[in-house]
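Z., the sequence and structure:
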Amino acid sequence: MLKKKLKSVSLNQIQIEDKFWKEYMELVRNHVIPYQWEALNDRIENAEPSYCIQNFRVAAKQQEGIFQGMVFQDSDVYKWLEAVAYSLMWCPDEKLEQTADETIELIAAAQQPDGYLDTYYIINGLEKRFTNLMDHHELYCLGHMIEAAVAYYKATGKDRFLQTAIAYANCVSENLGTEPGKIPGYPGHEVAEMALVALYGITKDERHLKLAKYFVDQRGQAPLFFDEECKKNQNTCYWDDTYMKKQYYQAGKPVREQDKAEGHAVRAVYLYSGMADVASETEDEKLFEACEKLWDNIVKKQMYVTGAIGSTQHGEAFTFDYDLPNDTIYAETCAAIGLIFFARRMFEITKNGKYMDIAERALYNGVISGMSLDGKKFFYVNPLEVNPEASLKDYNKMHVKPERQKWFGCACCPPNVARLLSSIGGYAFECDDNSLYMNLFIGGVIELLLGGEKNTIRVETNYPWDGRVAVTVENGAPCEFTYAVRLPEWCENYTLTVNGEKAEYMAENGYALLKRNWNNGDRIDLCMEMPVTVVEANPHVREDIGKVAVMRGPLVYCLEEEDNGAQLQEIYLDEKLQFAEQYEEDLLKGVVTLKAEGKRVSGKGWNTDTLYRAYSGKQYQEQTLKFIPYYAWANRGIGEMEVWVRI
């Protein structure tokens, strides 16, 4: 059975009280969402203009003008609205909701009589719509519109936005397909696939599931639609002159025949998420087998230690197995978020904790690294090694920034981070009628029916700084249900007790299943040992030979110039591998730092006129090294950074 076995606990049933994540959520609500609204309206000084809201006003004939910005600019406001929706679920805000309602009215005002809604073509000529599905993102914008509309409907009960999205989805259904008179096309940039399944979950309209399934099934079928579209409309495919060709779009062959992650990384994991959704809804075993193969290829051969994916700037893409450069990396923030989407769907189908292990790794490292601690600057690229001078002067590294940016002309990442962090509670806790799964260790209060009774579950923890998690059950009457505790892959030793006594549980797929009759006041205590772990990469990863990365719990650590001086490539970690841990409350909003003994290659005997000389043995200078969590780097100014350290 591929039907999803779990669903997220509704955000209005969760109050996050966790010090680590509550601060992020409040940052998004109080600063990021308002800041991004200003950016969407082009009111951020010295930041690249968005033109997003302006385009909708022009399309709605509320002002004169031309289309400006990226062809997919509409999607930025949709992701912003989705973040708003999630925020409203756990913190009602009349003023914010009013702003969202007004924005939705503006969007609806631009909609065409047949439901079509894409400002690029409304402004530039509707006769050209659906003539470049390969590159012009109409269906990508549709996908993000649907996701936002579904979230806003769940948050407020208002269906104005939902009906707008339904009308556009139905318009696409009327125009695309294999039936006579229709265009046999599919998205160039995927996301509509998973969005349409979410829409089907609300509407139960078979057209929406059918369209999602069609987009998945038709992709890569011969003759390739994108080839035919190029011939018919005189479009040009840039990627035909590269090794990727149509696999840049994951469209070079049918999806069930794909077993390696290829092409644009964000598109890929968005597609794989949609494939998992369609496989689940339609009980398609072959499609799910393809998802499993693609997952294994990513996490076993193409994923960075931070959970980041996408190793080259050329096409923001995957390259080949074990190709994981640290300094020319791409590792787009959106790609790590997309990997979490994929992980969540695979977990909901299988209840296997290995998927949430990767989701946690990507979340704590590859995602939150993309936003500054004050929520005002963002990384598009998340490198594992940075030399600021190289970023400035080496053309092949200019995409790697040593500091976060205020905004981007292509601003997909900032609102993507906002919508994920606003909905983090739904990733942490999932349920069925008689089970609650604790996927992420996030403190808070969850209220829901389990075992036929209303239960209040209180979770207290200081994770990720220590491994202690306490769970208290409050109910009006005893009731039987299962509380499932994830036992993370990084944790080798732990204790699990109920009311102070060793817990009896069944271990299954990385979870401890505590099935019992729960009484008011019952308490679960999970205590995970959290030693520093030094990891090495597979020898096939050429860049990391002779190097190690430092982890503690779910966190990857790094060296920064601020703490260790410049020329980080000269540093070696002592093989004794003894670390001193210290929680520094006033550093980077409070982090556990690690200190270890190391050494630095001595420059003694070298002068500025000598580039090479006969090898005379290595000379070292002893140095104490200080590591900080990777996600927090570049918050104290511009400097070098390195994750993989010589040993």
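The first strand starts at residue 7 and ends at 8. Residues 70 and 410 are 7 Å apart (CA to CA).

Let me know what you think.
H.
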